[in-house]
Design a protein that fits this description.
Layout (H helix, E strand, L loop, with lengths): L1 H14 L6 H36 L4 H8 L14 H34 L6 H33 L2 H39 L3 H4 L2 H24 L4 H38 L11 H35 L4 H15 L1 H12 L1 H21 L1
Helix pairs in contact: 1-2, 2-5, 2-6, 4-5, 4-11, 4-12, 4-13, 5-6, 5-8, 5-12, 6-8, 6-9, 6-10, 10-11, 10-12, 12-13
Length: 373
């Protein structure tokens, strides 16, 4: 019922021009949030509740089974004697992640609406930005709220709810992080194709084809997320498969970045020698700006995720659970989730056309709202 009602609200507002006012846009955002919660959170909650009931009924106590039941999120839960300072720290993280989730949701909805409602922005490169915004929006609607419940359950020592929220958090992270990573590599590949194909770029690279690429990326993300459920007790195959996929993507991204840097360096040398550029089909200043924007997005992604990767590597090497480990995990996870807040800021800062279109869209909605009053 919640999914049907929320979907009806989203469809009604999107199809009725007179309802596209600032106040109704907030209602639209809430409806999208409720829709995501009804599709993902409630479904997972029901599945987890059934699993919990079965665990209790299998002639053993729940606490005896809790370690196995919590296996997908065991790296986050450590039975240690925490002090009040740590609990205050967790409360602060809950507030921080709640604010970040709201800001990320609003900003990414603005990016999505701006690209969707501005015909001049419906270019292949912007379709990839739209894909990143959708991934960040999904993270703000599912991963960050479930992580807040996860931390709150840790404070309350509620193992049952800790397992439920932890699994939702883990599965959503396995869903949206690979999608963001793969889409980011697609952005790099797009900049590579722009210099490699020259005049054929506009002919071969189309919005429709990039839309198909995004669908494939999301399908792969869904498969990875579902695999964490199917192979919940078989982490080794997941680690091997994940390592191979990530290694391949990193190698591909490094190749694209190397080729792009060579083109830009060659162009700079040609300018210094006062020679005519061989890349006449490319607006090089505009291309350089788009490449620099890509570097910023990649840099922010690495800034947000490298601390978590370092924490996981250090913990896997020493395999020692301490208060420092918990501080490192909770901080690095919160920083990784904050990536969805920073990306829209970069888009509006670096892409002038997107910034102006968003401003015009907000101004138009404000005008409609004042006229309706």
């Amino acid at each position: 019922m919640a999914a049907i009602s929320s979907l009806l609200i989203v469809y009604t507002i999107s199809k009725t021009p007179s309802l596209r006012t600032p106040s109704n846009i907030l209602i639209l955002a809430l409806a999208i949030s409720d829709l995501g919660g009804s599709i993902f959170s409630q479904s997972l909650y029901c599945a987890l509740s059934i699993s919990t009931f079965k665990a209790i009924m299998n002639n053993s106590t729940f606490l005896a089974k809790s370690k196995t039941f919590c296996q997908p999120v065991r790296i986050y839960f450590r039975i240690l004697s925490y002090d009040n300072h740590y609990y205050s720290y967790l409360h602060g993280l809950i507030v921080f992640n709640s604010i970040m989730a709201f800001v990320a949701g609003v900003n990414n909805v603005l990016v999505i609406c701006t690209i969707a409602r501005t015909p001049s922005l419906r270019k292949p490169a912007n379709i990839l930005i739209l894909g990143l915004a959708l991934s960040d929006l999904g993270s703000s609607l599912l991963a960050q709220p479930s992580y807040c419940f996860f931390l709150f359950a840790d404070i309350q020592h509620d193992v049952h709810r800790f397992c439920q929220s932890g699994k939702v958090y883990a599965w959503s992270v396995w869903m949206f992080t690979p999608v963001s990573f793969a889409t980011l590599i697609s952005v790099t590949a797009d900049r590579f194709l722009a210099v490699e194909l020259h005049l054929r770029y506009q002919e071969l690279v189309t919005t429709k084809r990039y839309g198909i690429v995004l669908i494939l990326i999301w399908a792969i993300g869904l498969v990875i997320s579902v695999s964490t459920i199917i192979f919940v007790f078989k982490t080794f195959p997941l680690v091997i498969t994940g390592s191979v996929i990530i290694g391949t993507l990193i190698c591909a991204n490094s190749f694209f970045l190397f080729k792009i840097s060579r083109v830009i360096r060659r162009h700079s040398l040609q300018i210094q020698a006062q020679q005519q550029s061989v890349q006449q089909s490319i607006d090089m200043p505009r291309y350089k700006k788009s490449v620099n924007t890509m570097y910023y997005v990649i840099g922010v992604f690495l800034f947000c995720y490298i601390p978590l990767i370092i924490t996981m590597v250090v913990h896997s090497i020493f395999r020692k659970d301490t208060k420092v480990t918990r501080y490192m995990y909770t901080f690095s996870e919160s920083l990784a989730l904050a990536n969805g807040v920073l990306n829209p800021v970069l888009y509006f800062w670096r892409i002038e056309e997107l910034r102006k279109a968003a401003y015009n869209l907000l101004k138009k909605m404000w005008k409609c709202d004042t006229e309706s009053v």
